[in-house]
Amino acid sequence: MQQKKQLQIGHSDFKSFVEANGYFVDKTLLIQEVIDAPFQVLVIPRPRRFGKSLNLSMLKYYFDIRGKDNLFKDYKIWQSGTKYKGERGKFPVIHISLKNGKALNFEDGRDGIYKAIIDVYREYAWLQEEDHLDKAEKEQFNAILGKIATSKDYEAALKTLSDFLFRYFGEKVYILFDEYDAPIHAAFNHGFYPEMIALMQSLMGNTFKDNIYLQKGVITGILRIAKESIFSDLNNPGIFTLLSTTFEDKFGFTTSEVKELLTNFEMIEDYEEVKKWYDGYTFGKAQHIYNPWSIVNYIALREDGFKTYWVNTSADELIKSRLLAKESESLREGVEKLIKGEVFREFIHENITFSDFHEDSELFWSLLVFAGYLSPVKKHGYNEFELKIPNFEIKILFKSIVMDWFKKVIKIRQMTLKSMTRCLVSNQMEEFERYFRQIMSDTFSYFDIHTEPERVYQAYLLGLLGIMSDDYIIKSNREAGKGRYDILLLPRTSNKYGVIFELKQLDTKSSDKEIKIALEDALEQIRERAYAQELEAHQIIKRIEVAVGFQGKEIHLKWKSFN
User: What is the pLDDT of residue 315?
Assistant: First the structure.
C-alpha cells in the first residue's frame, strides 16, 4: 500500500520535499511555460508565500545537469512530450536568493547579497581543481570565496561563474534569481534606498545583460521595481505580473487543487469555509486562486480553526506605515470602503516607483494588489480595475490596521486634550487656541455635517470637554440670565475659572472683518444676556468668556477673562 503523502510546511527545496513524501500540488507545467517563453529573461513577481521559492527550486532540479535522479516521472511535465523531457538535466544552474539582503543599513544589506553570491560559489568550489580555469581565474574564484574580492568582482560574479560553467559543461546556464526585491524593500523602509538601487542595478545588469553564457534567467520577487533602471539595461526581459495571463495558475492554488488537497486529508466538508477565508485572488484571467500558505497551515492546524495564517508571517512595513501616516486619510477612507464590501476602482501601475510612492496615492493601491492584499476583479480600459479585498483573512488584517490607526489617533488626541483643557482652566488662552485648532484639524470632518451644523459643532466640543468632568460640571443649552448659553463649565471648587462658550457658524466665504464682527457679537451676547449669573450664583468669581466661530474645519476664537 502506497504511503500517504504528508504536508511539508516551510520546505522550499523541491528535492527534499519530494524525498520526504511531501504532498506536492503539481505545478510542473511551469517548466513547459518557461521553456516555451520567447524571452531569455523572465521576471515573475507574485505575493509572498505563493510558492515562488519552491517553484524556482523545482526549475533548478529539472534543468540541473548534475541531477542524477529523475524526480519528475510522476508529475505532469513528464507527460508533456519529448521536447520537454529532452531539457531535463541538460544545463548548469545558478540558483540564488537575496532574502538575506534584508537589513537595517546598507553595509549589512550589501554583505547579505555578497554572502548569497559566496554560497553559490561554494556550491561550485570544485571548479578550482579543474584545468578549465587558469591561475588568475582561480585566484579570482578564491577571492570571492574568501570575502576579499572587490565590489566590482562581486557584482559581476554570477556572469563570471556562467563563463566558468559553460566552459566546463559545454552548455549555457540557467540563472534562477529569487527574492530580488527583498533588499530594495528594506532599503526603502530604512533610508538607504539610492545606495541599494545602485548596487542592484549593477548586479542585475552584470548578470543578465549581454551574458552570452545565459540560456535563460528566471527572476522572482513581489514587485517589479521600475524607473530606477534595475531592468532597463536587460535585453527586453519578459515581465509577467499577476495581471498577465502567462503563468496565471502556476503560483497559488486553483479550486480543483484545493478540493483535491482537502479530499486527500479528509477535510472536504470544510471547503466552503476555506473558500470564504482564503480564496478570492485573480491572476491574469484565472479567478478563484487560493493563498497556498494559508491553506496548508489550516490543514495542518485544523483543530485551531480558521486563522490569519498568511498575514502573520511578516507584517508589511511599507503598507502599515503608509496607512498609519497622519496625512493618509483618503487612503484609510478607501480601505474602510473596501472593508464594507464596496467596489473600489483604481488604475494599477505594473511598474512600482518607490521614489514617487509618498506623492502618488495610486501607487499605494498598486502595491496592495501586487503584494496580495487586494484583488483586481474587473478591468475597465487600460489597467483600470475594480478592486476588492479577496477574502476574510485579508479583511481581518485591514480591520486591525484601521483599529491601530484609531488607537493611535485616540492616544494622540487624549494627550492633546489634556494639554488643551489644562491651558483652558489656567487661562492660558493662546495655548488653548493652538491645541484646539490641532484637534479640530486632526479629528473633525466637516463633510460629516449635513443639517443643523451648530448642533454638530456643539456636540463635538462637548465631547472634547468631557475629559474635564472630574473637576467641572459641564452644562449646555441651559437657561441663565436672559437666555440660553451654548456651553458652561462650572468648576466643582470656587477657586477655579468658570468658562462660558458661545458658538457661531460662519459662512465659508466670510471675510476676516466679518469674522471679527461675528466673534465680538458673540461675546456681547454673553454679556447682554447675563450668562455669567449661574457662575456667580455658585460663588465663582474668575471666569473666561469664549466666542468660537466655526468655518468648516477652520475655527476662530476671541475671549475675555475676568479675575
Answer: 46
| H or E segment to which residue 112 belongs | helix 106-123
pLDDT digits (tens, 9 = 90+) for 162-208: 999 999 999 999 999 999 999 998 898 888 989 999 999 999 999 99
Looking at every residue in the chain, the average pLDDT score rounds to: 88
What is the full DSSP assignment across 486-512?
SEEEEESSTTSPEEEEEEEE--TT--H
Q: pLDDT class for 281, splitting at 50, 70, 90?
A: very high
Q: In the structure, how many helices (H) and strands (E) does the chain have?
A: 21, 17
Contact status, residue 291 vs residue 251, Cβ threshold 8 Å: no
Residue 181: exposed, middle, or buried by beta-carbon count in 10 A (0-12, 13-18, 19+)?
Answer: buried
Instruction: Tell me how far apart the alpha carbons of residues 414 and 407 are, in angstroms, rounded to a whole number.
Output: 10
Considering only CA atoms, which of 438, 478, 525 is closest in space to residue 489?
A: 478
pLDDT in tens, 304-346: 999 998 875 544 666 777 776 656 667 777 887 888 888 888 8
Q: Which of these, 449, 340, 342, lies nearest to 402 by C-alpha position?
A: 340
User: Contact, 58 vs 30, CB < 8 A?
Assistant: yes
Extract the C-alpha cell encoding 297.
497551515
pTM attached to this predicted model: 0.74
What Rg do the C-alpha atoms of the chain give, in angstroms?
Answer: 32
User: 143, 137, 186: which is closest to 162 by C-alpha?
Assistant: 137
**Residue 41, number of CB atoms within 10 A of its CB:** 24
Closest to 372 measured CA to CA, from 272, 282, 458, 457? 282
Are the C-beta atoms of residues 180 and 220 closer than 8 Å to each other? yes
Residue 85 three-state SS: helix
Distance CA 153, CA 101 (A): 18
In terms of Cβ atoms closer than 10 Å to its own Cβ (0-12, 13-18, 19+), residue 94 is buried
Q: Is the dihedral of CA 335, 339, 340, 341 positive or negative?
A: positive
The answer to whether residues 188 and 336 touch, using CB atoms and an 8 Å cutoff, is no
Q: Is the dihedral of CA 443, 447, 448, 452 positive or negative?
A: positive
Helix/strand/coil for 215: strand
266: CB partners within 8 A, 6+ apart: none
- Each residue of 320-345: b (16+ CB within 10 Å) or e? eebbbeeebeebbebbeebbeeeebe
Q: Quick one: residue 427, left, alpha or beta (phi over 0 = left, psi -120 to 50 = alpha)?
A: left
Question: Is the dihedral angle over the CA atoms 73, 76, 81, 87 positive or is it negative?
Answer: negative
Alpha-carbon distance values, 303 to 306, 419, 425, 483 (Å): 9, 50, 57, 67
CA separation for the pair 125, 146 (Å, rounded): 12
Strand ordering across the sheet containing 554-562: 472-476, 487-491, 498-505, 543-551, 554-562
* Half-sphere exposure (Cβ direction) of 145: Cα atoms closer than 13 Å: 15
Cα distances from 443 to residues 123, 285, 361, 504, in angstroms, run 58, 42, 21, 20
State the number of CA atoms in the 13 A half-sphere of 417 facing the CB.
18
